[in-house]
Amino acid sequence: xGCGYFEYAIAKEYDAKLRxxxxxxxxxxxxxxxxxTTFITTYGLAHNAYWNEVQSExxxxxxxxx
Length: 66
Known about the structure:
The chain starts with 11 loop residues before the first helix and ends with a helix. The mean pLDDT is 90. It has one domain. The chain has two helices and two strands, in the order H-E-E-H. It has a two-stranded parallel sheet. By secondary structure, the chain is of the alpha+beta class.
């Protein structure tokens, strides 16, 4: 069995969960500031239908200067 390196793909259900969490945070804190979603992943995000809601991402290469 080979070891593959894959980007993280956000599924429809997880996208909905992220939106609910962001809205819950907004309601609880009463913030009017912009909320930015940042993903910290090993190999980055796959550019599928749901990645547009993510404003920034940090990968292993960013953390360890490869």
